[in-house]
Amino acid sequence: MKRRLKKSLAVIAAVMMFGFAGSSSHAADGLPSWNDGPAKQSIVAFVERVSAQGTADFVPVPERIAVFDNDGTLWAEQPMYFQLLFALDRVKALAPQHPEWKAQEPFASLLKGDVKGALAGGEPAIVQIVMATHAGMSTDEFDQIVGDWVASAKHPKTGHLYTEMVYQPMLELLAYLRANDFKTFIVSGGGIDFMRPWTEKVYGIPPEQVVGSSSKTSFEMRDGKPTIMRLPEINFIDDKAGKPVGIHQHIGRRPIAAFGNSDGDLQMLQWTCGGPGPRLCVFVHHTDADREWSYDRKSSIGQLDKGLDEAGAEGWTVVDMKVDWTRIFAFDP
Amino acid sequence: MKRRLKKSLAVIAAVMMFGFAGSSSHAADGLPSWNDGPAKQSIVAFVERVSAQGTADFVPVPERIAVFDNDGTLWAEQPMYFQLLFALDRVKALAPQHPEWKAQEPFASLLKGDVKGALAGGEPAIVQIVMATHAGMSTDEFDQIVGDWVASAKHPKTGHLYTEMVYQPMLELLAYLRANDFKTFIVSGGGIDFMRPWTEKVYGIPPEQVVGSSSKTSFEMRDGKPTIMRLPEINFIDDKAGKPVGIHQHIGRRPIAAFGNSDGDLQMLQWTCGGPGPRLCVFVHHTDADREWSYDRKSSIGQLDKGLDEAGAEGWTVVDMKVDWTRIFAFDP
Lengths: 333, 333
Description:
The structure is a homodimer. Chain A has helices spanning 2-18, 38-51, 82-94, 107-111, 115-119, 122-134, 139-152, 168-179, 192-203, 242-250, 266-273, 306-314, 321-324; strands spanning 65-68, 183-191, 210-222, 225-236, 257-260, 280-285, 317-320. Chain A is α/β, with parallel strands linked by helices. Chain A is globular. At the A-B interface, helix 1, helix 9, strand 3, strand 4 and helix 10 of A face helix 1, helix 9, strand 3, strand 4 and helix 10 of B.
């Protein structure tokens, strides 16, 4: 109630000062880490367009759905996806309970510190690592494991917590959109239950607005207590053509704005910008080898190739991290 | 903005009248169709308990998640599930494009008007009818088909639109919970895409807060346009033990309040009330043969048997529709 009262008083004050309760968008001065280039301008112009009451482009509040990829769009994804680093840490933590891993790939290589050798087995090896570390416990237990990890594990290059490796300009963008009555969702190829324990605190995005890849789960009584158990079986892969499917499944309406950074996001952007009325599709382009990483068409992680071509052809917005962002991480000088 | 201003002025007025911005719950006078019996009292007591700031039972706003079954809990489900009546209507509408149905069960019986004969094939027959009527079109097209049907089809007994067959006391309850900062979700065994086209208008529940059974879908380019197609394959059945699984998948946190009417909701209530802190579990009991229908332990639709026993054992709230509700439908005298 107190917060509501504060908001109310602020509105009253604004009305008294300006003599009207304006219908236009909240000012974009909430984007201090963005240079005033074409990327920022296209975002602000879009938000002002859909917020302009009485115009043909006005979008009612409930339809202001914005979707964000996570890895490489909201937080970094180098030298490899952070969830994979989590899985590797978990293999080490669980090794004492699995003496058989010493003689079993990909675990044997991993435990000898040979990550490259372990991952040489490709996708089957990764699936094995993920299943061994992400299944066999309750959802509550997994929440706790992830929460403990993000509170303590450090990024191998920067030494910062992974949840500090989020892009400051994107945090400002999320807040700016929400100030203009957008509902912000994550739509990530990463694990839905790997993200949910921390997205509300870090991004202001509650668990019910997180869409991601998932394992199958089952409801059962364990020691007489209702429990949801994580099974070693993939339920859904929220990547590429899976992203529009995940959006439809979870959100049930087409977003009007989508933000990604790789070809894994291309179909999400196609689906978003394929609808009628004003639409905003944005690729974050990793161009800053000094402050972050520089990669695109040939990267094995976060490859942006077809997407870059389509962005050019369709006139989508491409954020040049080096040029458009004055700061990348909050901890930058 | 106008609505926000009105709300603001109302809050200011309340503060001036009462001299404080209280932290307690919004008054329960928003439940005029509820008699002041134990059911209403248990609901109001729960809401006041979780809203009382500074107490051990206070629940922060983001965790105030309430889940509602749909068939038999928010709207009626007799003489059969309304979605099945929709499917039967669709079979008739599609028959000219399917001359083969004249010689093929369960369609042949249906087209002769013999519903009972068609459904004698049990679940396989129902699955056939649902697949023939719910798949093979885009999600946008299906939205339109459902929207047209709910705007025109009439209930065989009352002659009212199906969306008028919603329980007035439950509409008031949804609004009362939202006024106390609850986020309200539907968690139904019915089809997620059958509900979404109308739940926002009818219940104030937006598509992204609807959980239900689903078909598989695929993202594809159709005539160069990005399209999500509905496939004739079941993706998820959101019933019984599937309900906690669906809740975990879509919402990602455990509700603190759950409302159902049948054994299909039992696991949802177990999951909700199995958590720590204040919890509210409610069964709506169909006891009014005059104003609605009367059925429970032996009904083939909406059977409430184990649930009734467990409600007694656990002290859950049971709403006696005949006794607790002064009105059932808005169109009641």
